[in-house]
Amino acid sequence: MTLAIDVRGLNKSFGDKHVVNDVTIQVEQGRICGFLGPNGSGKTTTLRMLCGLLTPDSGSGEALGFDIIAQADEVKRRTGYMTQKFSLYEDLTIAENLQFTARVYGLDRRKARVDNALERLGLATRRGQLAGTLSGGWKQRLALAAATLHEPKLLLLDEPTAGVDPKARRTFWDEIHALAAEGLTVLVSTHYMDEAERCHEIAYISYGRLIARGTAAEVIDQSGLITFHGEGPDADKLARELSTAPGVETAAAFGAAIHVSGTDRRALEAAVKPYRRAPYRWSEVAPTLEDVFIQLMGQSQDNVQ
Amino acid sequence: MTGLSGLRVLAVMVKEFKQLTRDRITYAMMLAIPIVQLTLFGYAINTEPRHLPTAVLMQEDSRYARSITAALKNSLYFDFVAQARSPADLDRLIRNGEAQFAVTVPGDFSRRVARGDKAQILVEADATDPSATGGAVAALAALPDQALAHDLAGALAPRMGTAPFEVVVHRRYNPEAITAYNIVPGLLGIILSLTLVMMTALSVTRETERGTMETLLSTPLEPLEVMIGKLAPYVMVGLVQTAIILVMARVLFHVPMGGGWLGLSLGIALFITGSLALGFLISTVARSQLAAMQMSFFYILPSILLSGFMFPFRGMPAWAQWIGEVIPVTHFLRVVRGSLLKSQGLGDQWRELLALTAFVLVVTALAMARYRRTLD
C-alpha cells in the first residue's frame, strides 16, 4: 500500500482566522477521496497547501513521496490542480490553452499530446474556438484535460462540477474514474452527495477540523445516527414542527416525505410519537450520507467563530 | 409598462450610493481629485515663472557690471546661482540645466559704455520650454534704460532716446520658440507612463481577477518567470511606441534631434523598465482591474501636472518642485529634452539617469518582495 498523500497536523491561519486546524489526511495511491464540508471550512486552503500554493504555518507531510514544503517544486511537477473557478484563458482558443500548459510543464511531443487530449475530449474539430465560448460542462472538461496533460500522479480538484448539469457531471466523473483506474490519485472537494458516494472514500472537514473519515458506509456507521422516514399527505410540512423537538438533530423534507434523524433513539422515538397515527406511515431507514452531513454541520455550528 | 416609479428609482439610488461609499478607492478619488487639482492648479502652477536660476560670466569686474546684475536681480526674474569662470563653463551650466539663463558681461563693457560705443551684454536663455522664459525675456527690454541710471548721471548721461547699452538675447535650443519642440519630446514620457504602467497593472490584475494566476502558480512556473514572461511583451510595446513618437516628432513636427543618443537610450531603457515594474507593483496591491486603473491614475495625474510636462517646472513653488523631483517622469523628461534639444552628453545627464536607476531599483525590489507573498 503506497500513500499518495500523507500529511499530518496541517495548520493555516489568515490573520486571526484559523482556517485549517490540525488536519491529517492519508490517501492511498489510485483512490478517489471526496473532500467534503460546508462553505468556508478550509477545503480550498487544504488543497492549496497540498499543491504548494500556500505554505502551512505548521504540520508536515508528503505528497507522492515528496515533502510538501521543502520539495514543493517536485510536487507541483507531478500534480494537476483544478481551481474552483474556470481558470484557463477565455481569450485563447481551446488548442492554445492546451499548448500553453504543455509549454509551461516543458513537455516533449507537445503537438501529439495536445492533439491526443483534444481527440479524447472530442473537441478536435473545435480546437480553434475561444475557450470562453464553451458551455460550463465543456469548460470543466477542458480544464481537466489541461490539468492532466502532463500526466500527473496526483489530481487535486476544487469543486470541479459546481454549476454543471447532471449529464456533464456524470461524464466528468466517468473520466475521473478512468484516470483513477490508470493509477492516478484524486482528491476532490464537492458539495454534491451523489458525487461523494462515487468516491472511494470521504473526508469531512468542518471549520478547519477533520471530523469524519472513511468510506461512505463507514462514515454513516460512525455517525451513530438513527433515521425515521415518514410518509403521508403533507408529511413534508412536519419538518418545521419536528426540527425543534428534543432528540431531533435534523428534520428535512424529501419531496412529500420527511427524514427525522438523531443519535438518541429513545428521545427520537418520543419526538415522533405524536405523529405515529394515520395518515402518516413511519419506518426506520438507513441514514443517507446527506443526513449524516447535515447532522455533522449542525454539530460543528457550535464553534462558529 | 407602468411608468416611472419614484420608489423604484429611489431603491436603485440608495443601493448605488451604498456601493459607492463602500468602494474606498473610488470614494477617496472623488474627494481627493478636486482637492488635489485645485491645490495644484491654484497654487503650484504659474505659467510665468520668476526667480529663474541664472549664471553669470563677468569678463570685467566693474561698477557698471555690478549694477547690471543688481538690476537683473531686482526684476525678480533672475536669481544668480553660479559665477562662470570661462565661456565654456557658462555653456556647460546652461546645457546641463543648472542655469536657465546665462549672462555675459564682456571685457570691454565699461569702456564702451563710457564712450557711448555700442556696449552690449549677452543674455542666453534656455528656451527649450518657451513659456518658461517668455516673461523673463520680456522684462529684459526695460533693462538698458534703467540699470545704469544711477551710475550715468550728469555729464555721463546718455543723450535722450538712446540707451547706454544694448541687451542681446539668444534663445538657445529653440530659437523660434516653437512649443511643439518642448511638448512632443515630453509626450514620450507621458505616453510611455500611461500605457506601460496601466497595461501591466491591468494585465497582472486580470490574471488574479479571473483566477488564472492560481493555475499559473500551481504549475512549475517560478514567480520570476511569470514576471519576466508577462513583462517582456510590454518592453516591446514600449519600444514600438518610442519609435513611433520619435519618428512622428521628426517628420511631422521637425523636432531637432541634436544627439545625446547614448543618454537617451539609457533613459528610455530605465524608464520603460521602471514603468513596467511600477505597473507590476500596483498589480500586487490592487485586487481588481478597476482598482489597478485607479491607482495608475493616481500616479499619472501628478506625472502630467508636476513633472514639467504641462507647466514650467521652475514656475512651481518649492514644495511642488520637491514632489516633482520624486516623480520619475520629471527626470525622464529632462533626459529626453536634454538629449534631443540640447545635445546633452552623459556628463550633463548623470544626475537624472541616477535618479531613474534609483526608481527602477526601488520599485523592482518592492514589486518582487510583494509578489512573493501574494498567495500566502
What's the short story on this structure?
Chain A is an alpha/beta fold and 305 residues long. Chain A contains eleven helices and 14 strands.
Give a verbal description of the structure.
Chain A is an alpha/beta fold and 305 residues long. Chain A has two domains: 3-219, Rossmann fold (3-Layer(aba) Sandwich); 226-286, Alpha-Beta Plaits (2-Layer Sandwich), CATH 3.30.70. Chain A is built from eleven helices and 14 strands. In chain A, helix 3 (94-104) packs across helix 4 (110-121) and helix 3 packs parallel to helix 5. Chain A is globular and about 70 Å long. Chain B has two domains: 52-172, 3-Layer(aba) Sandwich (abc type-2 transporter like fold); 180-375, no CATH class. Chain B has helices spanning 6-22, 24-44, 63-74, 87-95, 109-115, 130-139, 143-146, 179-210, 212-218, 223-251, 261-285, 289-305, 318-326, 328-342, 346-373, and strands spanning 52-58, 78-83, 101-105, 119-126, 165-172. Chain B contains 15 helices and five strands. With 376 residues, chain B is of the alpha/beta class. Chain B starts with 5 loop residues before the first helix and ends with a helix. In chain B, helix 3 (63-74) links the parallel strand 1 and strand 2. In chain B, helix 8 packs antiparallel against helix 14 (328-342), helix 10 (223-251) packs across helix 11 and helix 11 (261-285) packs antiparallel against helix 14. The longest helix of chain B is centred in the middle third of the chain and has 32 residues, at 179-210. Chains A and B meet through helix 2 of A and helix 9 of B.
